[in-house]
Structures are given as C-alpha cells and as structure tokens.
Design a protein that fits this description.
11 helices, 16% strand, 425 residues, six-stranded mixed β-sheet, elongated, alpha/beta
Length: 425
C-alpha cells in the first residue's frame, strides 16, 4: 500500500475515533443549551480539520519556508498532544459502553421480571449528584488532563533543559599522557526539530564551558534534510576542541525517511550535503575509518562507523574497515550511533574495542532518570538505552541526545551533554 492510501485510511480511523470521543463528551454535558452545543461542535470539528490538513501538509508540502516550519511544528505538536489525551481517555469510554451493554443485555433477558437492582438511573429524575456514565466519562476527561499537563510542561521546560552528565572512564591500557584528559559527547541534534535558537546556543555554551580536550558527536545531525542545518550550521561550528571533534552519521542522516530506501540522485545529493556540513563545521566525520589521537608521543584510536542498527535500521557500518591497521593502538574508542550494535556485533567479534559511544534512543524523551535509578518505556526495546554499561572488559555509553524528534519536548529524560574524564586503572 502506498503512503497516501495508508494516510487516508489512518485519517478515517482517527476521525471515527474522534467522533466517538466527541459523542462521549456531549453525553455528559446534556444541560448545555443548543447554542452552546453548536459552538462546541464548531470548535471541535474545526480544530480536528486543521490538525488533519496540517499533518498532510507536513508530509507533502516542501519544508523550506521558516514561517511554514514553525506553523508545521505547532500543528504536529497539537496533533500529538490531542491524540495522547484521547488515547488516555479511551479506556474510560470503553468501560462505560461495556457497562451500558451489560445492562442492556441483562434487561432484555429479564424484561418480564421485576426492575433490576443495577438499573441505570437518570440523575436528574432521582436527584443523584451524578450518573454512573457521567462519573466514568468525567473521570476519563480528568485523567486525560494529566498527560496533557506533563507533556505541555515537557515542551515549555524540558526541551532545552540541558544537563551535564559527568562520568569517569577507567581504561586499563590508557597511555600515561592521556590520564585526566576530558572527552565531551553530544548526540542526536535533530536540527529540523529546533524552534528556539537561543536555547540551543545555551547548550553549546555549556559544552564549551567544560573545556573538553576532544569531542564526539554520535549521529543524527538532521531529521531528514541537510537544509535543516541552514540556521544552525554557524552555531555548531563553534563546537571545537584542541584534539578535534569527531562525528559519525545516524540513521536519520541518510534521508531514508524522506526519500525512501531506494537510491536516487536527490537522496545521494542530500547525503553529500550532510557530509559537507560536517566538514564546513570542522568536524572530522568518520565513515568506517579511524584516526590516531596523539598526545606527547603516545596514541589512542578513535574509530567511527556508519549507522549499524538492528531490525529496520540500516546496516551501513563496516567494522572490518574501521579497525584495519589499529592492532598497535592500546585503547580504541568507537563511535557508533545505535547502541544495539554493541551487543549484536562489537561484543561478539571486536573485543579490542574498549568503549563504544552511542545515542539514538533519546531515552524515548520520557521517563525517570536520577543518579541511582532510571526508567523509560524505551528499555523494553533497547537493553542498553541510557548511561554507562559494562560487560567483561568492554564498555558502552549511551547518550540520550541533545535534541528531540516527534514530540518537541522531554519529560524526565532531559537533553544531555556528557563529560568524561579518562583514567588509568
């Protein structure tokens, strides 16, 4: 099925779902005057129509006008928040309908018997403060307000609330010259999602204030298109370090989600433009290759591969190329965007890798993360999804990302700038 028919079917389903919620809301506000009901209906369906048109426009209208990008972001956020609230309310509506159905069936089976003890009553006729149906549906409305409140707060307060995470990396074979060296890591910029350039600049300033000796960027510079970096290229060009900035590509950088999986001239050009952007910013983009990092005559290896992920994610990475001619290096640090690569290939075949640095998961931009405890729904998909992991002599660090994708905010899992201090065992 093509994308347009699938979107049309999805829209029909969502409109039916919307109508179901609309009827439920009206059912608990029976005392509204006809004029009030008419106004409510007009607002409800106008809002729904704007959201549907906005989603189609976001997919099919070229996204190169700044005003359009801002409007598209607002519409997509409104669509996301509205859908989440209705999904939260849905169980209450289903419970009420199921209750009604049971009562109806029970009545039909015992229509000649005495009145049922569970007979549905009308609160207006018997003086009850609220009917069972009204109570259930209103409880659903109140419950739906909880995610609306938290997700709205995540947009206003969490999207750019950058946090410094400090970690010590103990490396048994670390050369003495690298003792105490500081490494910074950011990941998943997703520049096409930004809507506050000043706030993004604040995160860059925080990173540079740490004065890292070298910096890793572990993929997903853009959502889809190289043009998304137009307003942010100069800003991220300020990300510099004495020993260099090293970067890799993430799954979004290839344009697969915009152009499709098949090769095309436009897709190839977009990828080349992304690669060129790294170069213009002064970042050393590693595409299945390595660099020798030298301090006072001693060396460690920085390796970087193209995206390699499990499932539907592309496997462009070539560890055989990245590790070539690195046997003499006492420490090897690997940049690989997707953390699933660590368990699926690195641990099994490349025990010489000391630490792998990843991103990709975003911590699902929702959850709980404290110094000693973390939880997010993403952990049911990725075994390693945030923070530092160890297995035998190898380590993995997963950065939960600098930017955001889809939902333009973060709740509990805040944007991260990681600062590592390298230590000898």
């Amino acid at each position: 099925m093509g994308r347009l028919p699938a979107l049309i079917l999805l829209s029909i389903f969502l409109l039916a779902f919307d109508y179901y919620c609309y009827r439920a809301v009206l059912s608990v506000f029976k005392k509204w005057k006809p004029a009030t009901k008419k106004l409510f209906s007009a607002i409800w369906w106008t809002y729904t129509g704007i959201l549907v048109i906005g989603v189609f426009s976001a997919i099919y209208v070229p996204s190169y006008l700044p005003l359009y990008l801002s409007l598209r972001s607002i519409i997509l956020v409104a669509f996301f928040l509205t859908l989440i609230c209705k999904i939260v309310m849905l169980p209450f509506l289903l419970i009420d309908d199921l209750r009604r159905l049971i009562i109806k069936i029970n009545r039909s089976l015992k229509k000649n018997d005495a009145p049922l003890a569970i007979k549905e009553t009308n609160s207006e006729s018997v003086g009850e403060p609220i009917s069972r149906s009204s109570f259930i549906v209103k409880a659903g409305l109140i419950t739906a307000a909880i995610p609306l409140t938290s997700l709205t707060w995540g947009i206003s307060s969490g999207a750019y609330d950058y946090k410094i995470k400090r970690r010590t990396l103990v490396l048994p074979n670390l050369p003495k010259a690298f003792e105490g060296i500081k490494l910074g890591q950011i990941s998943d910029i997703h520049s096409g999602s930004f809507y506050n350039k000043k706030a993004v600049q604040g995160g860059v300033d925080m990173l540079l204030a740490e004065k890292p000796d070298f910096i890793f960027f572990t993929g997903d510079l853009v959502n889809d298109m190289a043009t998304e970096m137009r307003d942010y290229q100069d800003l991220f060009s300020k990300v510099k370090a004495p020993l260099g900035v090293y970067s890799v590509l993430g799954n979004h950088d290839y344009g697969d989600y915009h152009f499709g999986g098949a090769p095309s001239a436009a897709k190839a050009k977009n990828l080349q433009d992304v690669i060129k952007t790294h170069k213009i910013m002064g970042w050393d983009l590693l595409m299945n290759e390595h660099r020798r990092l030298k301090v006072d005559g001693e060396e460690i290896g920085v390796l970087g591969i193209e995206n390699w992920g499990m499932g539907r994610f592309p496997k462009y990475g070539r560890m055989d190329l990245a590790t070539k001619d690195t046997a003499d290096l006492p420490v090897k640090l690997l940049l690989s965007h997707d953390p699933s690569h660590w368990r699926q290939e690195v641990l099994k075949k490349y025990q010489q890798i000391d630490v792998m640095f990843s991103g990709h998961t975003h911590g699902m931009q929702f959850g709980v993360r404290t110094e000693h405890y973390q939880w997010s729904p993403i952990q049911y998909i990725y075994k390693e999804w945030a923070g530092l992991y160890r297995e035998q002599n190898q380590q993995l660090y997963v950065n939960v990302g600098y930017g955001f994708l889809g939902y333009p905010g973060r709740v509990g899992i805040l944007p991260e700038i990681t600062i590592f201090e390298l230590k000898r065992a």
